[in-house]
Batch of 4 targets.
Target 1
Amino acid sequence: MVTDTIEDTRVFFSIKHISWSEYGFHTPILLQDANGPCPLIALVNTLLLKYEFDIQQQQESVKLAGINDLRKHLLRLETKIYLDDLLSRLGDLIVNIAETSPDCEGDAAKLLDLLPQLHTGLSVNPNLITGKFPKDDLSTVLFTSLFELNFEHGWVLDEDVTVIRELEFFDKIQDFLLTNEEEVQTKEWLDANKTQVTNAGLEKLSDSLDFNNFAIYFRNNHFNTLFKSGSGDLFLLMTDSSLKSSKNIIWQSLTTVSGKDDIFYTGDFFPILDEDLQEIENQRGEVDDSDMILVKQLQEEEDQRMAEEMHKKYQNIHTKATKKLEAQDKKSELISKSKKQQTKDSDKKKKSSCIIT
């Protein structure tokens, strides 16, 4: 008897288990294929690595406590995690944060709807003066306000360009150039810095991060995990899926604008020698094209369903919490009235006692 095999076309992310730092942390991370910017990968990887470090330093955040459940889940899965599974678990994290932090409730509801978009991209508006992003952007709310992560870029003005200094934000600068085509100086600076990083930006980036700290790093419409080591050096986590089988190539230094002098490092931050770099070229040539195509098949209807379910879940929890608070307030009000009545009755008895005497 012949049976048809139904191919599983769901979107998934490959998992790589890395050992890193002088403490020998063992952490599962998500790898990136040829599927666009994917801030989702940067968010998850940064949370996982930061969690390991915070636990060692006994600095566990209440907001990040739930990340250990995701870490254990990835360790059990070993090789890959499906997008719907990942979004569901991140949704649970956001709901838990909303329950413990009332100030985040409004943001949490918006972000639950935003989650599916994290697979295909995320709109950002870098400030070319400060190296930051607008505080009210959903990207900033998600990374910084909700998950307490640094969100940085290195595309910072390094010379006197009046328009950029006055407008600051990239979106405003773009809008200005649409109606002011004669503005040559601004265009020349943008063209000269298409890599979206400058020496001034690297300096500001280093100054803004504490030692042994993590950030989500934005550059050229890509998001990555950045780490500032105890020595002050900056490293980017290598998440290219072509390096999945490589146990040695974990980090890449971030020291130059051009990237010419940036080198690869092992998990415990030892530089990889030139003779070992052939491993990178060999592995890059072994990427399975079919996997790339599979990852690109993002199912928008499935994502929308997931978003609606997570939003509904949040609304249910929020409604229950509200009813609970209302019930507690009503109970407190009844107790207060009862105490007042008891006080009145006691006063009456005292007055009556005085009259009899």
Target 2
Amino acid sequence: MAETAAAVAYGEGVPCWVDAQLSDVEAGKRFYGGLFGWDFHEVPEAHDARGAHGRQGPSVGAFLGGEAVAGLAPKADGRLPTVWTVHFTTPDIAALVGRIRAAGGQVITPPTPVGTLGAAALATDPEGAVFALWQPGTRCGFGRRHLPGSFTWAQLYARDVNVAESFYGYVFHDALFGPGAAPDFGRAALSEVFPPEMPPHFLVHFAVTDLGEALGTVERLGGRVRALPFGASYGRVAVVTDDQGASFALLQRDWQGRTSAP
């Protein structure tokens, strides 16, 4: 069986959740439901909570096989970017915010309760890459990950990889790049995939069983292929956007015989 959220023991610095900030959540449900087979349910706890992204209004949880895999949320302001954001878990969000500031990052939105689900904050690293923090309440994070149709990797594209390693190593106590590094996170120079004018950013990866078929589905649903399939140390990757412009990646690994996440 796939992991359940209650069974996952997320250490600090592990990617525990992803959500998309969209202009049209209903359109997002059609796109991602068609691509990954997700079902959607509203999140009552978050309806009146002004969360990490400053939004208000109904958010929806995405589910696969009855397990939570992601969230879709309305943008608070139409001028804000349409993006996927990765959340890193922490048992003490206030202390982590302090380390981010001390290491040269910025806190966009301070720690904010999201109903009973937990507390969230939004920050940037010294180069401007945006990420979120999550201190669990009733929601620990993913109910399913590393399986087709769910989150499997977060790649940081940085201008200076050494700066990134220094910052995240300090902020998360080497959880990302140290000897016991989280298996769901990597970093690379922007020039490896993107043009130099692209700002530093995190790219959320979702697992698929057949990359070519998934790319065809993306285009059929109105999305676009931004980077054709290329090989990486963690699998075969393609970068796409949904029909509203949110970028993400599709990752094909060898799933033969695999029924649960590590």
Target 3
Amino acid sequence: MKFIVFSAFCLAVAAAMPYEIIEDEDGQQYYAVPISREKRQTKWNVNQSGVGISHTANIFDNNKHRLDGTASAAKNFNSHGLKPDQIGGRLDYNHKPSGAGAFVGADRTRGFGTDLNVGAKYNIHQSKNVGVDVTGQYGRHFGGPGGTGKPNYGVFLNAVARF
């Protein structure tokens, strides 16, 4: 089921990409796919308890929309085997003209379950000196020794004024 959802997401992103059809002198048609170099960032962390790595990259970016993704994994030194003890991922979407955005993320710790978090932000008003937005978040823990936890959620109104 996860593979089907992931495949559908990848297909939707590919379908949303702006393709241009060009034709050469012989009448052969080609898809012109825009290519741009985006900043990607890989971070390593090693300490007395273990090692961790995370990689963040831009997946899609145009004048109106931006999608970034992060994947992470960690291995504790005191555990056995080669599998990572923690794995996770996050997608961040930003609608550039409005400043609105959303995210979805999940982190799985072997033997302790999975944490799922989603959230969204919508700008109500934005000017030179005042900004007002509403945000909503939802989080829940699934599985592990304590079982599935109760949902943790909230809606917040944020205001910023510069004098």
Target 4
Amino acid sequence: MKQLFFAISLLVSSLLSAQAQIDTINTNTLKLNVSAFKESKRSYAVFFEDSTGKRLTSADIWDRTIRFSKSATGQKTYVFDWKWFSKDSLIGHVTTTGLLPSLAPLTHDATYAKRGARNFVFDHNIVTIPAASRRTAKDSTFKVVLNPPAFAFPMDLEILPLLPVKKVGQEFALAFYEPGSPTSNYYRLTVTGKEDLPVGGNAKVNCWLLKIDYGQQGAYATFWISDQSREVLKMREYFRGRYRYKVKLF
């Protein structure tokens, strides 16, 4: 009996130790490396392949820009602007603003060719639809309390490189919120390796490999993040038997 109790105690201790090693990060913890969050413009080619590597689509282009500003009260803020082009047509335009250094979102305005416009405001982790954008009774009653306090999910390419990555095997629980969804969630991320990524010609860039678990069976992605510049150079995402790639152009 004593041996059984000892074995159970060891198992519980091991599980608690493993849990303690997961670094929990949200907009309140201030654990991100915001010194790497800089004004910038990056463009990505986005395309799909099947499990054999056969290209399934032509590439869309994502232009993503970060610039800094200040609120009327002098608070430092950021502006994230994302334009999504498909076959030379603008099919999506997203603008998110937020606070520095927490990166907590303040506003989110999105217009998609097929889904229309959606606008949200954030006030102390409470998300609502601004009065001018309410079109239905559901819009008027829309209210989400961000628990956990979360980053805007459309900014994943900009936020993931800010994680305090130092070694292979590190694990993070990072809070994201997809504007319009009913809740925010933690997503499990693991530093799975480090390797040189070919970027053209004979050039290579040393990158951390960061894997995200989307919380759905068989849905995950790996990001190649430059160790020096702290930016995503490549992403490979698997879902429902096919792969989506995001590759930085310039």
